Amino acid sequence: MQFSGRLVQNEHIAISEEVESARESLSSYERTTDDGIMDDSTSILLEGDSRSTRITNADDSALNTDSSDTDSSEDADVNGASPASDGREYDESDVLTKPEISPTLKNGTLSPVQNTEDFSTWQRIIRLDAVRANCEWIPYSYSQATVSATRACRSAEAVGLKDYDHLEPYRIFHAARLVAILEAYALYDPEIGYCQGMSDLLSPIIAIITEDHEAFWCFVGFMRKARHNFRLDEVGIRRQLKIVSRIIKFKDSHLYRHLQKLQADDCFFVYRMVVVLFRRELTFEQTMCLWEVMWADQAAVKIGIGKSAWSRIRQRAPPTNDLLLYAIAASVLQRRKLIIERYNSMDEILRECTSMAGQLDVWKLLDDAHDLVVTLHNKIESSL
């Protein structure tokens, strides 16, 4: 992933603000719950039966969008889709920000006017994210990389994409495809709509799959597992951060005590890794490798591999739905000495996590993750 020099220097500041925003949002949400000062619609949110909104940042403005606090336990059906990734060109506004409860909720639904306004908001954000996608995917998609200027502009006009004159034809075409599919998904799943980070998950799929309708349904399958990352109540994110924290605690008590001392034992410094499935820390090819292994584990769990005693004997590590989290914990543990000896604040750990981009060995990461699964899987499962 490539960044401009200025943004490399400043990105840790934006991520630090993101983490503080995350914590404040969760604390506010929990205080509201504890104090019992919620209206009926907010009570419904906690029960998982209503719609809610998310805030995502674009052009330094807070834009309200719909989100879901319902979750799907279905596994991702992305057969035929080999992931690659877009990489991004970021500015300070490209920060994954936190959800808030919307005052427009009434009886768990939104008015048609509000739905229209939300879709307009999603459209603006989708376009901002789409035109910032970089060209890291080019070596993996020759047909799209050699698209003509005429076809690229026609695709952009078809989805109403503007402000793309500075882009090459292949980037215009890629952006237009992102817009078309992400808008379709926002209509397909209006409870989630669109949130920043979703384009990171889609871009690998459209780099490999050339037909939009096929890419759309693969993305729908992918989001069955990933959509909980974009829920209003943050239940999915908090569960995953809790697992990362426990993996570190059980594996390395010294490192965990240091994180406690810095008030970082909640592991919010890996928030971005969780939300976009390590996409922004790994190269295009590394992302393909990690996601393929992750999906294979999830498929194995779904069909029951690893449940029998014979299967457990033959397997080095049992399949798990949480391989990504073990990989994230492994990336932190690989830097344990640096964190313990040199870092004395949350900001410094955030900066280190940001610097991982492009510096990770995905195969070493997977080896370490599988070692953690072997030694800690049963203990983690029983502690949840």
TrEMBL record:
Residues 68-77 have a biased composition (Acidic residues). GO terms for molecular function: GTPase activator activity. It comes from the Eukaryota. Gene3D superfamilies: putative rabgap domain of human tbc1 domain family member 14 like domains, Ypt/Rab-GAP domain of gyp1p, domain 3. Residues 58-67 have a biased composition (Low complexity). Residues 112-298 form the Rab-GAP TBC domain. SUPFAM superfamilies: Ypt/Rab-GAP domain of gyp1p (SSF47923). Residues 104-113 have a biased composition (Polar residues). InterPro entries: Rab-GAP-TBC_dom, Rab-GAP_TBC_sf. Residues 23-113 are annotated as: Disordered. Pfam families: RabGAP-TBC. This is Rab-GAP TBC domain-containing protein.
